[in-house]
Amino acid sequence: MRVKKRNLMAVLSLSAVATFGLAACSTGTSSGDAASEGPSMTEETTMPRTDTMDPAANLVGPGCADYAEAVPDGDGSVAGMAEDPVAVAASNNPLLTQLTAAVSGQLNPDVDLVDTLNGGEFTVFAPVDDAFAALDAATVTALQGDADLLTSILTYHVVPGQLAPDAVAGEHATVQGGMVEVTGEGDSLMVNDASVICGGVTTANATVYLIDGILMPPTE
């Protein structure tokens, strides 16, 4: 499922409008035992980080400059995201309000992956708000009522271990169990049929690639 890339500045100006009628939320806590935490996310490989690493050093993608210009500092900036675990960092990013709602129980109260995402080392392919806006109403309704379906889609965007831009190309097993394929290089990376807007964004425990489409797990 694809959504046409737009100027990142325009996306940022519209990000306050919640596509699902949901407000962006803080992801510092989970919603309790009733929430589904999805499949176990086992750490496989990690990309070591040190306090001296520049969070912007390995960024790739045609939208990185616009992102840095629009959010030059603060918790949602490239430098700010590096300080927090991935679910918290995503909640501070103005491009990821709908993804934040989906993983934190706002879209479906039985799906809360915050603690799981914050608890290991991952590569996260993060659909921006425009990708969620492209979903039709029937799909949104289905996701609101089907915790297993939503969990499957969300965990298909997560790969155990951190993959830097120079190592992300290839096929990777996701937490959901299906394979995701990353092709291209540099500013022309694709994840399945979605384009990377800005990738290599580091958080305290993950490497994030902002993408312009929602990845759908393969059907058997």
Automatic annotation (TrEMBL):
GO terms for cellular component: extracellular matrix; extracellular space. It comes from the Bacteria. GO terms for biological process: cell adhesion; extracellular matrix organization. Residues 1-23 form the signal peptide. Keywords: Signal. SMART domains: FAS1. Residues 28-49 are annotated as: Disordered. GO terms for molecular function: cell adhesion molecule binding. Residues 83-215 form the FAS1 domain. This is Fasciclin domain-containing protein. It comes from Labedella populi.
